Predict the structure.
Amino acid sequence: MNAAAYLARIGFTGPARPDADTLRRLHLAHLYTVPFENLDISLGCKIDCDEERFLRKIVDLRRGGFCYELNAAFAALLRELGFRVTLLSARVAREDGSASPEFDHMALLVDLDEPWLADVGFGDSFLEPLRLKTELAQEQGGGPFRIVPIGNVMIVQRQLADKTWKSLYQFTLKPHALEDFDPRCQWQQTSPDSHFVQQRICTLPTREGRITLSDLKLIRTEHGKRIKRLLQNEDEWRAALVEHFGVRL
């Protein structure tokens, strides 16, 4: 694990102490530079839950990944810097109110003077880590977020423009090893029911909003306004990956 190379990859400068301010700055730096993407799936490259592979892909090859890759690699960086990190299994909220199976998503518990929820692998979500304080509305650039407990289950929610709260995912504090996520990781890559199989995606938050490449659709969100452009072919698609995300396949 080359922490210096990882910090350079995400453009992080300054002291990297295991404290809340550093965690916040690392979280932001990671999200702004390492895209959420599932491109290996469409390329037929199998993704195994292997920390060394994830680090090489993100740091050396300057790629992104989906939750297992991004959060496992980020956890490795945090541990190298002296943070205490636990891998958490999360279940994603569905439109009908149900939740997806265990290990459908990976999030991180970071223990400092108080516990924090970190997550650099959920796409459009919170940019800064959340205090693990239930029912507390935590203001961020993308709006308020909160964590709501139901028994031992905690639900991450985002406040919408109409002031209602939308559930993103739920988790417990039970610790897990990286290999626990591998069966679901394989399902995400192979099942016709997986949206990662159905669609190519590459997305990054920006200071103004977000930029997303969804198959051949290039979508910019700037100060709440969405601008869509349809790319003409695969050559334009690959050029957009390089221009907007620094991804070279």
Notes: The first strand starts at residue 36 and ends at 37. Residues 20-33 form the longest helix (14 residues). The helical segments are 3-9, 20-33, 39-43, 51-60, 67-80, 182-190, 195-198, 234-245.
